[in-house]
Design goal:
Layout (H helix, E strand, L loop, with lengths): L2 E6 L5 H5 L3 H11 L2 E5 L4 E6 L5 H16 L3 H5 L6 E7 L7 H12 L4 H10 L2 E4 L3 E7 H15 L4 H26 L1
Antiparallel strand pairs: 1-3, 2-3, 4-6, 5-6
Helix pairs in contact: 6-7, 6-8, 7-8
């Protein structure tokens, strides 16, 4: 018996699955043991499988297609195939009062010449994408949580220097915890 689940995808990003990276499509199919049927007319990917999909696998697939829709490159999307990575999404429409406010918020997150975005990515080890009205974050749970907090601080109007200080502290904490975990494993 075959099971099929439709998952919506942004039409502008279908090329990520179709031509730019057919390899990504194959990796998703092989790793999750599914077949992806792309319906470009209706902007949907039909996920077909021989077994009933477990809720966690469905959530993982939805996150993968959401990441593609947000504009993440294939190498970032691949990280979601690993169970240790998560996708965080912040909807800026819920925060911004109008389009001018939305542009101001996005500008704060990007920073001058992209500095704020780079600092968030470098200090937390995440990949960050700022789409039309959403911010996407892919990384391990600790890094993604810290990155989300930094983005939310910028949205609330905190000074960039305050956010950078926060990121430095979080980066040290994450590094220390990872070293402790590593030492326990060895």
């Amino acid at each position: 018996m075959k099971f099929t689940i439709p998952i919506p995808i942004d039409q502008r990003r279908l090329s990520t699955l179709l031509c730019n990276s057919a390899k990504l499509k194959r990796e998703i199919e092989e790793t999750l043991n599914v077949k992806l049927i792309i319906d470009s007319k209706n902007d949907v990917v039909h996920v077909e499988t021989e077994e009933e999909l477990m809720p966690l696998k469905v959530m993982k697939l939805k996150n993968i297609f959401k990441a593609i829709s947000l504009g993440f490159p294939p190498e970032s999307v691949r990280k979601l195939l690993d169970d240790s990575n998560v996708l965080e999404v912040i909807d800026l429409k819920e925060i911004a009062r109008n389009s001018r406010d939305l542009q101001r918020i996005k500008g704060r997150i990007i920073g001058e010449e992209g500095k704020a975005r780079r600092m968030i990515e470098d200090m937390t080890g995440v990949d960050l994408v700022i789409s039309e009205h959403e911010v996407g974050i892919i990384g391990d749970y600790e890094g993604a949580t810290a990155a989300r907090e930094a983005v939310e601080m910028l949205i609330r109007g905190r000074m960039h220097s305050t956010v950078y200080r926060f990121l430095r502290i979080k980066a040290r904490e994450i590094k220390r915890r990872r070293m402790e975990l590593w030492e326990k494993m060895v």
